[in-house]
Design brief:
The protein is α/β, with parallel strands linked by helices. 52% of the residues lie in helices and 15% in strands.
Length: 432
């Protein structure tokens, strides 16, 4: 009897020591919907089953900004999660917080499989600071049925501002009882259109050669963008919900057939395609229309990446990176892309999708891929690094909103630049 009790006690000790030896990796992310958060949880469950020494615990922590702020606060309290999903324009703020360590410093990783425009964004000061996860860029969506009714060819969607305006003239003449064009009012698109013209949004190499101290909103490229919005508004070709950054509301305008053309993220391809099918029309996808007379330079990557906290144990950091690499491996990124429409970020995932015939089955996705892979590497297309990016994005949105309300383009740009530059100066004052 005593032997049985002793054996039981020893087994209990062994199990207790195993439990204490297990490394917990908290993973904070910003996907609250069942589809995407469920996919993340499923990957964590798979990983945990095959890695007894590590337990990955994913948690939804609110919006990108909420999650980033919560992480910085937790780090100050010595309670930082091991792995965090941070949106692309939060990169400078994440770096400045001192709460994170470059993924390239945790252990040696071969980054050669990542799509260049994606990995370039997250390579800062020669170091890969975070691991690409959900990446996207903007494309043009169009209602093929309404285009045909207006006498337009859906196989030749507009590729420039001027081309879009000409298409709108035909739509207006056709009396289709719909607005020509809609998109959410978001600073992300201004950043994209600056990059497409080969123009950095910020000085000092888009904030990559030194801390950005001023915007380039007094440039010809910026004026082209604001003038485009004014022209579309003056001719009553543009519609939006009236709210800033209303992604869902703007998507609804398009899927309810209240606009013929729509610009939004590649990440919405799946949802918009399904909504269009339900509404009874065929949707098409084209490249992002750009300013007339400018060479197509390509897009800046959007979305988010995976950062590893600094104030954690070495086993936690290695476990976080190991899980991040597992979640973003070739097979998983291909499946993630199919589920969501986000880019799969790995070249090998694209090759796998091609072998599976995915792009033949879903040609809408091919346009987005080609637009991304043909991006010309430069400071402009690498994306701007700006610790006050959340503020400056909103300031640019409010600037466009003033133009839509009737303000002169030059006056709106002057005011917008002054406000954005002031926000940069205020932020940078923390680092003198």
């Amino acid at each position: 009897m005593n032997r049985i009790l002793l054996t039981a006690a020893l087994l209990g000790l062994t199990n207790a020591s195993l439990a204490s030896a297990q490394t917990t990796v908290e993973f904070w992310h910003s996907f609250g919907d069942a589809k995407r958060s469920g996919w993340i949880q499923a990957r964590a469950d798979e990983y945990n089953k095959t890695h007894s020494g590590v337990k990955v615990v994913p948690s939804y922590k609110g919006s990108y900004n909420d999650s980033l702020q919560a992480t910085i606060l937790a780090a100050r309290q010595g309670k930082a999660p091991a792995l965090v999903q941070i949106f692309e324009v939060g990169s400078q703020l994440a770096l400045d917080s001192g709460a994170f360590q470059p993924v390239s410093s945790v252990k040696n990783v071969d980054f050669s499989d990542y799509i260049k425009p994606v990995i370039n964004y997250y390579t800062i000061g020669g170091k890969v600071n975070s691991l690409p996860f959900n990446s996207s860029s903007p494309v043009l969506y169009f209602n093929q049925d309404l285009m045909k009714k207006a006498g337009l060819n859906p196989k030749q969607p507009p590729t420039t501002y001027g081309g879009l305006i000409k298409a709108c003239q035909k739509i207006e003449a056709a009396n289709l009882d719909t607005t020509c064009f809609g998109m959410s009012l978001n600073g992300w698109f201004i950043e994209q259109w600056m990059a497409q013209q080969g123009a950095p949004l910020l000085n000092n190499g888009n904030g990559r050669q030194g801390r950005a101290t001023a915007t380039n909103l007094d440039s010809k490229a910026a004026k082209n963008i604001f003038t485009f919005f004014k022209t579309m508004q003056d001719r009553k070709y543009y519609t939006y919900t009236g709210k800033l950054e209303d992604w869902d509301g703007s998507d609804a305008i398009f899927t309810n057939q209240k606009s013929v053309f729509h610009i939004t993220s590649t990440a919405d391809i799946g949802n918009i395609r399904d909504a269009a099918k339900k509404a009874g029309f065929s949707v098409g996808v084209g490249v992002l229309p750009i300013a007339d007379g400018s060479k197509r330079n390509g897009v800046v990557i959007g979305g988010a990446s995976l950062w590893i906290s600094k104030g954690i144990s070495k086993p936690q950091a290695e476990g976080a990176l190991d899980f991040a690499l597992y979640m973003t491996n070739t097979q998983n990124m291909a499946e993630w892309h199919k589920l969501t429409g986000y880019y799969p970020v790995r070249q090998s995932s694209i090759e796998l999708l091609r072998k599976q015939g995915w792009f033949t089955q879903t040609p809408l996705q091919l346009v987005a891929f080609n637009q991304l892979t043909r991006t010309v590497p430069s400071a402009a297309t690498a994306g701007g690094l700006n610790g006050a990016a959340i503020q400056t994005r909103k300031i640019m949105e409010e600037g466009v909103q003033k133009v839509l309300g009737g303000q002169n383009v030059d006056a709106a740009l002057k005011e917008t630049k002054a406000r954005a530059d002031a926000a940069l100066a205020e932020y940078n004052a923390n680092f003198k």
